[in-house]
Structure formats: structure tokens, C-alpha cells
Amino acid sequence: MSFTGSVWDGSSSPVLSRVYSAYSFLNNNKPHPASPFTLFAIIHAIRIACAFRGVARAGGWDHRIGLFQAFTVPLVLILGGTTITSILMGAVPGWLISPIPVATYGLIPLIASESGLVSFLLSTPRLPRDLLFSTVDGFSRVVGMTTLGVDTVLAHPNPALRNSPWAMVLVATIAGGGGGMLVPAMKMFHADWGFDATPAWVRDGPGVDIWGATVIGYVYATLIDAHPFFRLLPKYVLTIFPFGSNWFHLPKSYYVNPSPVPLLSNHEAKIFCSVLLSLMLCTRTLWPYLQSNRKLTASSLNKKNKKVTPTSALTSSKAMAAVADKPSSSSSAVSADEKNKQGLKERKTK
């Protein structure tokens, strides 16, 4: 599929088109014609298994997780958010119509864990693996935030809901981040489930898994011009940074046209949001490494300063002592004159 006429005068189209081609290849092709699972669905399901088992092994309770428990947790993590939004909007969840989503995120993570594939992946270098998983998450979660989030609200038969910017952003947040709220709330990554403690995302504030869904829902609704409300942000940004008009060429009727004036096509906006979310998740992955490197650099500099400071102080003290012990040229000249005078007096006496 080719993209034309973007908000950047088409300059972004070739890049987004190549990204879309790679993603569509994985999302539309299957490892075998008889397989009900696409390549991307398999990759994402294995990634979910690694996330679940990685937490369980780090906590030391992986051996206590049963088969049905390992089957259920990924389903809640992936399908929990969209199930909630479907109930809120009076729609039927997709997994009630087709068993493919249940098989994808129930069976594949279980098979990957029991076959040893998860153990192999978790033994690989952590940073490259986590960056790859963050990219996979970025492209998979956007489906819930856009197609099953904002687009679902826009297609709702109720005009009050269909024209509500609040509903668009809220549904995108729940659909994209609801699973990340439910699983920690019920301690489902643990061997013993329960709701006996305040979830971390409530106690410490939501992380990028949750607020990232809000940001992506807002950005997507802005790019497709889902409601005139979403025109306020581009107008505000370009008012503060007028030089931004050199890169962002908004249509002339963008602010006054009552009809939608999309800045990007739906497909292009989804790819843009996928890349944006992937960058956000990769930044979260890289941040601890960057912080640790900064601390190591600072500590090494402090050690060097501590080594240099005593040596320089000792050298300066020795130099001062040497200067104090060594007579100056003027004092030595005075002492020589006194000796000469004393010698002359002794000769005269004799």
C-alpha cells in the first residue's frame, strides 16, 4: 500500500510505507497455509510468554505455576482491556465470536513455555531482547488503542458517544492498557492470585504501559481529525513554535472546516503511532542503562579526583617545606659579607 499526501508534504510517506510493508508482511502471512496464526501473532504471543515467565522466574515461583494458570494469564493481559471496553459500549468481544484470539494468546504462550523456547529467549542478552520486545509491543498494542479504541467509538451508533472526545481517549486507554491494569491488580503474575494490596500503578502512578495508551489515543485522534477538539493541540503548538510550520503544513481549512480534515490517512496514522509507541517503550528500556552509565561515569571521575587531590597536596607541601628550608639568595649574600668583615677584624687584631 502506498501513502500519499501526508501532513509533511509527502516526505514521511516513503518511510511509513516501508514500515507498513514490513509490518503487513508479518501480519498477513502465515508460517503454513493451514495455520490459523499469522507470523506477527505468533511473535507477539511468544513475547507475552517471555514477559509472564520472566517475572515468575525472577520472583522464584515459576515452578508453582500450573498449566491452566499459564494458559489464562496471557489471555487476561491481552484481551482484558478490550473486553472491558466492549462491555462499556454494549458490543460483543471478538473472542466470543472467534476462538482464534483465545488460541493465539492461550495456547502459543503455553507451548512456548513448555517447549523450552521461552527459556532460550530469556537466556539471550537482555538489552537487545528487550528492545526487540518493546518494538513488538509498540506495533501490537496500537491495534487496541486505534482500531479497537478510537475507531470503535467513531463507529458507534450512539451519536453522543460517537462525538465525544473524552470517550475516544478513555476507550483507547482502557483498550490498550486495561490488561496492564488488571493483571497487577490481581497479582496474576504471581503463583498465588489475590487482591490484597494496592496495585503499583495506583500507588506509584501509572507507567508508560497505561499513560502511553492515553497519549497514543490522543495523537491518533488528532492525526485522523476525529473531532474538532483535537485541532486545539496543533494550533497551540504552532502558536508557541511558529517555526514548526516549516515542517507541518496544515490544510488551509483545518481550523474552520466543520467536516473532518485528516492530517494523515488512517493506515498511515496507525503506523506513525506504532513507531511512536515503540520509541516510548524502547526509551523506558534504555533509561536504566543510561542512568547506570551516568552513575558509573560520575563515580569513576570522583575516584580520579580523590587520587589526584592527595598527591597534589603532598607535592605542594613538600615544595613549600623545601622552600622554607632552603635559604634565599639574599640571605646567603648577607651571611657571606658578615663572615668577610669578621675575618678582617681578626687580622687587624693580630
TrEMBL record:
Compositionally biased tracts (Low complexity):
321-335
Q: Provide ranges: composition bias, Basic and acidic residues.
A: 336-350
List the keywords (alphabetical).
Answer: Membrane, Transmembrane, Transmembrane helix
Q: Where is the composition biased (Polar residues)?
A: 301-318
Q: Where is this region: Disordered?
A: 301-350
Can you tell me where the transmembrane regions are?
34-55, 67-96, 102-122, 166-186, 206-225
Protein's name according to its UniProt entry: Uncharacterized protein
Lineage runs: Eukaryota, Fungi, Dikarya, Basidiomycota, Pucciniomycotina
